[in-house]
Amino acid sequence: MHVHTAGIGVGGSGAFVNEAMRSSYKFPIYLYALGVSMEEIEEQGDVVVLRNISRQIDESRRVARAVVLAMDGVVNARGELDVDQTQIYVPNSFLMRELPRFENLEFGASVNPYRLDAVDRLERVADGGALLVKWIPNIMHIDPADEAIIPFYRKLVELDMPLLTHTGQERSFAHARDELGDPDRLRLPLSLGVRVMAAHIGSTGMNDGISNYERLNAMIETFPNLAVGISSLTQFNRRNSLAHALTREELNERMYYGTDWPLQFFPLVSPLFHLNHIGWREARSIVAIDNVWDRDVALKEAMGVPTVVFERTSAYFSRRPDEHQ
After folding, report:
1. Are the CB atoms for 315 and 281 separated by under 8 Å?
2. Mind listing the domains of the chain with CATH numbers?
3. Which of 154, 153, 160, 158 is nearest to 132 (CA)?
4. Which parts of the chain sit beneath pLDDT 50?
C-alpha cells in the first residue's frame, strides 16, 4: 500500500510536475527512484512508471499487489484546479484508464474536497474501483478540520471508503504548509465516522509545542476508526520512529503496512541506519536483497513489525474496524 507514481503529461495522462519541482535538485533524484529516465517517459509515456512498479512486484517474493495513488492538486476559490499552486498532479482518470492493464496494481484515488464537484468525483472514483482516497494536506492546501467539507466526509462514510492522509511535516516537495499536517485536525472526520489512516504516524514536526506523533497518540483511544500506516518509517530522518511506535501496544493494534514507494532508495533508506535495532549481521543480509519491495518488508520485519500487520492490510479495505478494538 501507499505507492506513488508521477508523470509529465506524455501519452495523454494529464499528469504534471510544476516548474518549481522540475527545477529542484529533487527532481532527478525522484526519476532515479522511480526507475525511469526522461527519455523513457518521452518515448513510452507516463505509463512507463506503472509498468516499472508492476514488474518489480512481479519479481517480488513478499508483495503480491500494490495500491497506486493518484494525486489531486490545490483548488482555488472557484472550486477549480489551481495549476500554478499545484506541485504534482496525477489525475484519477489516468489511473482508471491504465491500471486495469496490470493485475497486481490497485487504484487509490485522490480528490481535493474543495473542488466544486468533489462529492460527484468521489462517486465516480468509487465506481471506478478506488479502494481509498489519498490526501497530502500540506501540499494540497486542505484543512481537514474545515467544517465546510463535512459533506465530503459524509460521502466517504456512505461509500465506506478510507481516507489515507499524510500526517506530520512534508519535505519531499518544494514547499508545504505543515500546519495542515497536524494529526489533531483529523478529529472532525474521525468524529463523523470516516475511516482515517494516518500515514507516517505523525512522525515528524510539531504543532502547538507538541510533537505530531504525540498529538496522534492522544487520539487513538478516542477514535476506533483511526488507523496508522508505517510507510516511510525506516527513512533516515525517521530512523527511530518505527522502533518507538512498536513499543506502544495501542498503536500496534491499529498499525498497517505501507511502503511510500519510490522513497525506499539509498541513501534515504538503508538497514545500516538501524544497526542499534537490528544488528550488523541482519542488516547485511537485508542489504543483499535485490528487490526493493522485499527489502522493505525484510527491514520492517527485522525491526519487529508483527506478521499480523502485513496480513491485515489488504483486509482493511473490505471491513470496518471493530467498534471495541
Report:
1. no
2. 3-270+307-318 (3.20.20.140)
3. 160
4. 319-325
